[in-house]
């Protein structure tokens, strides 16, 4: 099965810290020597990352933006890197919402930004990158769409209800994308991390408490890379793997049967 070892040029969205940064460096160091384009909003972090590897390139973007800006970003990236054959969606944000204090829930900014960053923009970017990947497929070349959801896509965390819902949406999207693209060489590899060492929770002031129980970033990256190299459709890690085994077994197959039934009706 083709895996990330077969990719020539990998775009990592959300590479300025945490999981995206670690995956970008690990992929850059594979024997296959791919070009890695690192992306995110913080240019100084991108510059610093570019100094870490000879085949690391930068492409700054804020994905929480208009459809026109996203389209421009995709067109520019594909024009500059025609070999682009993998996109890893590691960009994400997380907010705590307390329904027992509804007046504290920021509907106009935090709620909207979380949905837009974690789901809507990723959906749009996938749709925008697909024509390029489908052209590669016609030439017999594999390509990779790598959404990063979460164990919370399977078992939601009540403290972060909207975040959990965006991850559940991304997980569902990964299943249906994989089914619709199954006759092409476009592979969907969903990574489902457990709680992992990163900056995701810094603004919540929760990092000291969480750091006692999170998976160290290096351990997570080593395990995720193994699944990416093998080209596993799902790469659940740590507690997310236990949740996957408990609640997700047979879901892809059930969705496939349902899809085939729907297709046979038309
Ligand atoms: N750490 C965990 O416990 C955990 C668990 C399960 C799933 N995940 C998921 O794993 C992914 C990586 O998270 P992480 O833990 O590595 O968190 P992180 O260290 O906070 O990294 C998040 C990345 O997303 C980027 N980002 C955020 N908003 C963006 C925007 N509007 N446009 C472009 N880039 C944006 C950030 O870059 P800039 O700020 O420079 O834009 C940063 O590089 C996320 O999707 C997260 O939901 C994390």
From TrEMBL:
InterPro entries: NAD(P)-bd_dom_sf, Sc_DH/Rdtase_CS, SDR_fam. Pfam families: adh_short. One of its GO terms (molecular function) is oxidoreductase activity. Keywords: NADP, Oxidoreductase. Signal peptide: none annotated. Belongs to the short-chain dehydrogenases/reductases (SDR) family. This is NAD(P)-binding protein.
